[in-house]
User: What shape does this take?
Amino acid sequence: MASTVLSLRIDGELLDRLRQHAARRGMSVQDYVVGTLMRDDFDERFRASVDETEKFYGAA
Assistant: This one.
């Protein structure tokens, strides 16, 4: 998988909170943010697949 650079501007307070969360997990801020985005993306795709399954088979 190729990687691409994403640059964002965030305020200092948010960056401090991200640093704290990442440090608790022994991660860099970059790894923490990427992991969070991947987890959120998975949650959204999982919810969509459940919705489609329920449409196909009918809700339980």
Remarks:
- Residues 17 and 48 are 30 Å apart (CA to CA).
- The radius of gyration is 17 Å.
